[in-house]
Design brief:
With 755 residues, the protein is mainly α. It contains 43 helices and no strands. Helix 11 runs parallel beside helix 13 and helix 12 packs parallel to helix 14.
């Protein structure tokens, strides 16, 4: 191995580093590290070592050409020659290094990797007699035979079904073969372009090809695949196909952003801006990517919050159909009985339903928790079936539902709230439901309404209307999300939804996404849903993109505060205060952040100003009291704590600080009264601890020892940690007359009891 490394031109100094990397992924990580540190010479060293494992002379030749280009660029720079295209060339070389590394990994892993991708690749490599063009021709022939014209010729039902099965089998075969075709040849790219522009192939088949192109692109970056998706977006007369292709292209551009040759892609995107509604469509897709982040939150709300609350209600409520088709249906079912209204409100179910309805109205995917349970049918064992556009005459449906397939399938096909995969799930689930339930459902279907729904759906599919394109993108992203989260072998796929698909990070899309309107919409989405780190990043961009109002600085300050970046929070709250000095909300936030930063005098000043505007506000009084305590002005603080207790809607909020202030002023009798109230309700370890201090100051040692012991027991069994807390407040108590000998005696007493 050492001799081979030296033959590749790797110096002895680099040998030990190279020798440590034993897997393709380790080599790629080292290449990425070198690129990140702008050490391309070392990156080429690592790349050659990786290529040696691949044993492919074509890869070595490509490395030679790319490195020669880099050395020529270095010569130009070393000779001081002007090179206006240097930045673009450097970016192109970096992308080339990554692409060659990916090809080398592909060559190595195709030999024996057990994943579905490489197993499929090895299977297809053995099918010497099949070509992609041959498979496409066979598929087209079968489609012609299955057409309405040929049906008139009197082919029997058995023959039609046999043809349908063979056609569906070919669809899956073509999907899998295209998935593993890497790198895509110019010939294959040309064949697929012909398919996408041909009216002979159905939109459903083309949709399947789009998904296969995307899956392969996420496995290994391939510029031809990406360009083909952009071609489909630009030329397809179907709004649905155009948006699906754009979803795939944008997802790949982000996931593979380190490998994309920006120079070539830039001109392609510029052309699309001139010839399509590119910017508008990119914004639509980006918002769908953002909304997909809410799916886990919705699932958590339903599975871990709503359903457990429902199960705690009366047993007869559990007889309801919890698989209602929408949150609206569920709310209607639950509220049908007036006797349940109070129960719903008191249990929190009503509030959760309102929250979910609001999410649904805003485009959140509330169907995921229900249909996640229906993806175990054998139909979903095939990757291609997850992306199969819904057809009521698909053999999986006709086999499952028999004579009822046309009627039920037609209804499900027109359902506007389901993506294609969920429609298959619904039909397959109905097939195993009791026949009485299916008959009841069929009896409620209005043929006229069904016909209207089908016409409306067909219009949407073909429409170039903005809302239709948005809907198409949304349903496609839902289908993708389900595949990567629920497919039984999902661990073999890199999940593009594992982290936010932040298209704002792509310089190529800056013109499309960095407008004030788009940044405001994205920032607001993140802010409202509590994604404060993302909200801060986007709102900061928004501030830099044009004029903003005080509210924008308020939100930015709050986002920074929630992520612990207090200096930035203070800066933005101060900007908000400059724009709107009368905002009580901003004033209180300024006070809170100043206090957290230890700038207590400034905090007190802010709360004093707020007090002038709202003299009877208990919360402001409470904050002023806290500031005064921190400044050592305990008697003044008492007045504000008493005021907060008297004026507040929740007087218990003032009890703890009031008791502590009484203790620090030496009024141990009243302090003990307040601590007794706290201990009688829901005491914390600190309540027992502070009550023990008060008893110790009164020389009531038996009571003090009892309270300290209870405090230590409440401190999660960490007696050492409790001792630190016990000792931390003692300096404040010595000026009140505490005997310095008592604390050590208390500690030893407790140590004997806890040993």
């Amino acid at each position: 191995m050492r001799q081979l490394i030296f033959c590749l031109g790797i110096s002895p100094a680099n040998y030990e580093i190279i020798h440590m990397a034993t897997t393709p992924q380790q080599y790629i990580q080292r290449i990425d590290s070198c690129i990140g540190e702008r050490r391309l010479r070392d990156a080429f060293v690592q790349l050659r070592a990786l290529a040696a494992l691949a044993s492919d002379w074509r890869i070595t030749e490509d490395i030679d050409r790319l490195e020669q280009t880099y050395r020529m660029m270095l010569d130009y720079a070393a000779n001081g020659q002007s090179d206006p295209g240097r930045d673009d060339l450097y970016t192109s070389i970096v992308a080339g290094i990554r692409c060659i590394a990916d090809r080398a990994r592909y060559r190595i892993e195709r030999r024996d990797s057990p994943t579905m991708y490489y197993s499929t690749l090895r299977y297809e490599a053995l099918q010497k007699g099949d070509t992609m063009q041959g498979l496409l021709d066979r598929y087209l022939s079968l489609s012609d035979r299955h057409s309405a014209f040929n049906a008139i010729l009197g082919r029997g039902e058995a023959d039609k079904k046999s043809d349908a099965r063979e056609r569906e089998s070919l669809e899956r075969r073509i999907f899998m073969r295209l998935w593993v075709a890497f790198p895509m040849s110019a010939e294959l790219s040309s064949q697929l372009k012909d398919v996408f522009v041909s009216a002979a192939y159905s939109d459903d088949f083309k949709s399947l090809l789009i998904s296969s192109l995307l899956l392969g692109l996420l496995e290994h970056y391939d510029e031809r695949r990406l360009m083909l998706l952009l071609d489909v977006y630009a030329s397809s007369p179907s709004g649905r196909l155009a948006m699906q292709a754009l979803c795939g292209a944008l997802m790949a551009m982000y996931i593979c952003r380190k490998s994309v040759d920006v120079t070539r892609l830039k001109s392609r995107i510029e052309a699309l801006r001139d010839t399509t509604v590119w910017t508008s469509d990119v914004q639509k897709v980006f918002m769908q990517f953002i909304r997909s982040r809410d799916t886990d939150r919705v699932s958590h709300t339903i599975n871990d919050d709503l359903i457990p609350r429902l199960k705690k209600l009366r047993p007869d409520m559990l007889k309801l159909d919890m698989d209602a088709s929408s949150i609206d249906d569920l709310q209607e079912l639950l509220s049908d009985n007036p006797e349940w209204n109070d129960m719903l409100r008191d249990s929190g179910v009503a509030d959760k339903l309102k929250e979910l309805m609001k999410m649904q109205e805003e485009g959140a995917d509330v169907m995921m928790p229900t249909f996640a349970q229906l993806k175990t049918f054998p139909f979903f064992h095939e990757p291609a079936n997850w992306f199969m556009p819904f057809r009521a005459d698909h053999t999986s449906i006709t086999d499952a539902l028999g004579d009822e397939a046309a009627k039920i399938g037609g209804l499900i096909a027109a359902a506007p709230f389901l993506c294609d995969g969920d429609k298959y799930s619904f039909c397959l689930a109905l097939a195993v439901a009791p026949q009485a339930q299916r008959r009841m459902m069929l009896s409620q279907i209005n043929p006229e309404a069904l016909s209207e729904l089908e016409m409306r759906q067909a219009t949407l599919d073909a429409s170039g209307d903005a809302s239709a394109r948005d809907t198409a993108a949304g349903k496609y992203v839902q289908g993708l999300y389900r595949f990567f989260k629920l497919f039984r072998r999902k661990g073999e796929f890199a999940d593009p939804f594992a982290r936010p698909l932040n298209l704002l990070a792509l310089p190529l899309l800056e013109k499309d996404l960095h407008s004030p309107e788009t940044l405001s919409a994205v920032g607001e989405f993140y802010f409202q849903r509590g994604y404060y780190e993302d909200a801060a990043e986007v709102l900061e961009m928004r501030v830099g993109s044009g004029p903003v109002d005080a509210q924008m600085f308020q939100k930015l300050g709050y986002a920074y505060q929630q992520t612990g970046r207090l200096d930035e929070a203070l800066r933005n709250y101060s900007q908000a205060e400059l724009l709107n000095a009368d905002s009580l909300w901003t004033r209180r936030r300024l006070g809170a952040v100043c206090r957290l930063l230890g700038r207590t005098e400034e905090a007190l000043e802010h709360f004093r100003i707020a007090e002038k505007a709202r003299p009877n506000d208990a919360s402001i009084a409470l904050n002023i009291g806290h500031c005064l305590v921190e400044l050592g002005r305990h008697k003044e603080a008492l007045n504000y704590f008493f005021k907060a207790e008297f004026m507040g809607k929740k007087p218990e909020r003032a009890v703890r600080p009031l008791a502590w202030a009484l203790l620090l002023t030496g009024d141990t009798a009243r302090a003990r009264e307040y601590y007794s109230r706290l201990i009688a309700s829901l005491p914390t370890y600190a309540d027992y601890l502070n009550a023990g201090y008060a008893a110790m100051l009164d020389n009531d040692m038996p009571e003090a020892i009892r309270l300290f012991s209870m405090s230590a027991d409440s401190f999660d069994g960490d007696f050492t940690g409790w001792l630190d807390r016990f000792r931390s407040s003692l300096p404040s108590l010595y000026p009140l007359g505490l005997d310095p000998l008592l604390p050590p005696l208390v500690v030893d007493t407790l140590l004997y009891r806890h040993s």
